[in-house]
TrEMBL record:
It comes from Rhizophagus clarus. This is Helitron helicase-like domain-containing protein. Residues 61-81 are annotated as: Disordered.
């Protein structure tokens, strides 16, 4: 009985010791967490203070520029007036040295980061879909296929999607695209100008004019739409876009050439003849022109349904 009582007493002592150790570890973790929270709070306060100082300096510079007066200069007196230039030169030299060291550190850091980037090579784009002939990289294959017999589905869904072939362009336009003659070369050089002069609508979008760093991009917000005006220009205004297909068609080439005078009149005339033959919208505009010229009715309007 005595042995059992001693065993129970030792067990209780062991449990008390373990409980005390747990409590000690718990307090230690609480202290560490409290110190970490205080450090984060101090860092946050320091960041907020720096942000306020930067904002104050920015407001001061803006006020100086707005009011167009130089910042106040404290003129030293006595012996300080002779020591100030030397001290200022030393301060500037020290600041330049610090900036130089910072720039070197940044360049070294960027160089180290670039060297640590691993090169990933996809290989050649030499895999071909057996259904539609689209080209792929090997890594674009279906997950269920292997490298020995790869299959692809993001193009035509294994032959389930069939698109009609593109219609052949008019012969004159195809010649301008492919020929090496001088008129074809001139057309390709100014192809955007020809497209603008012959367009029926103008481009509309909310253009983002912000220019950041890096490669220049043309950015828009929201939907892209096309603007079209009335069939005839207002009194005192020059015809533009679709109005040129209806108004004063006897001088149509001159009116279009006046917009961009670098364009070739003969190419313009040939392109207009091609559009009259092939473009259904141009045919509708020409039909409205004929109705206006023959005075069939004073109340003529044209409705375009967007599919």
């Amino acid at each position: 009985m005595l042995f059992r009582q001693e065993s129970s007493d030792s067990r209780k002592l062991c449990q008390k010791r373990l409980a005390k150790e747990r409590q000690t570890r718990f307090r230690k973790r609480q202290k560490i967490n409290h110190e970490r929270i205080m450090d984060e709070r101090q860092k946050r306060v320091a960041k907020e203070r720096l942000a306020k100082e930067r904002q104050a300096r920015l407001i001061k510079r803006q006020n100086i520029k707005k009011n167009n007066y130089p910042p106040e200069i404290q003129i030293p007196s006595g012996q300080e007036a002779y020591e100030a230039p030397d001290l200022r030169q030393k301060k500037l030299a020290k600041e330049r040295q610090v900036q130089f060291r910072k720039s070197n550190n940044n360049e070294r850091r960027i160089s180290d980061e670039l060297e640590s980037i691993l090169l990933h090579d996809l290989g050649q784009i030499d895999q071909i879909c057996v259904h539609c002939g689209a080209k792929f990289w090997m890594e674009e294959r279906d997950h269920s296929s292997n490298r020995a017999s790869p299959t692809f589905s993001i193009c035509c869904a294994h032959g389930k999607v069939l698109l009609p072939p593109l219609a052949e362009p008019p012969l004159y336009l195809l010649n301008l695209y492919t020929s090496s003659e001088s008129d074809a070369i001139s057309f390709r050089k100014n192809i955007r100008h020809y497209n603008s002069v012959l367009a029926c609508t103008s481009f509309g979008a909310n253009i983002d004019t912000f220019q950041g760093q890096g490669i220049s991009n043309f950015c828009i917000h929201g939907q892209v739409y096309h603007q079209i005006g009335s069939l005839l220009p207002e009194e005192g205004h020059q015809p533009a876009f679709a109005q040129l297909y209806i108004y004063d068609s006897m001088h149509e080439i001159e009116n279009r050439h006046n917009v961009i005078q670098e364009l070739d009149k003969e190419i313009l005339q040939n392109l207009l003849n091609m559009l009259d033959e092939c473009n259904p919208y141009i045919k509708n505009f020409r039909h409205v022109r004929d109705l206006i010229q023959t005075n069939v009715s004073d109340d003529i309007f044209m409705v375009i349904y967007a599919d």
